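Obj: model holo form, ligand = magnesium ion.
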Amino acid sequence: MQKQNILFNLDDTLSYCNRYFNRVIGEFADQMITWFDSITKEEIKQKQLQIDVKAISQHGLKSERFPESFVGTYKYFCDLTGKEKKKDEIQYLRELGFKVFEIPVEPIPHMNETLQRLKEEGHELYLHTGGDQANQSKKIAQLELATYFEHRIFISEHKDTTALSDILKTIKADPKVTWMVGNSLRTDIVPALEKNIQAIYIPAETEWQYNVVEVNVEHTSAFLTLNSLQEVPDAIHKHIQEHAMSTYRLSDRVPAVDRKVSLEK
Ligand SMILES: [Mg+2]
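Output (holo structure tokens):
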């Protein structure tokens, strides 16, 4: 089988992530309604999301952004309702936000066997994850991902087309045999298609609104949607076989006169 370069995303592609954030956001909303009885949990969650996402464009995917979105939401509703801002409440919320980074992550089902199979088939596996160095490195170590990715690990604070483009240049990847596998339409799929590499989209169990965008990119590369990580090796294998078949058929159909011309060149 022709060797492929396969880039995997980490959060919600190889290991769970959104569920931990949702759990802590739930605790945050539960606490907030004890302080603000005129505001609903839904309003609190919407404001937190808005503040969190807005900060990405300024600060990237740095960890501090998330606890600060709790503090920002608290201050917003204090101003709205006239409630006094209390230092101990702000401190409590900041610590609550940081708790999410202490939760041990669990792998998505079949993570190890999928990566092992692709490795044994001779493909070059890369990891491209968004976030800050300390937190992502901790998860990578905990999941023992160096077994599959060794030093081929890239952590981007701004995970976009520029970041992907830099990685593709660094690894000198031929787009025709390069893939991006991820759960984020915004930060995995759109950049992959903009760079015209193959994209495999695997929707997460629950998705962060930031990751959901319309995919409207002109591309000639393959774009597949799969239900689970486990389906990745067969899908790539099938694509390679079909691609080999169509290339063969195309060369078979070249008229004799054209063959002669190309031979004379
Ligand atoms: Mg992800």
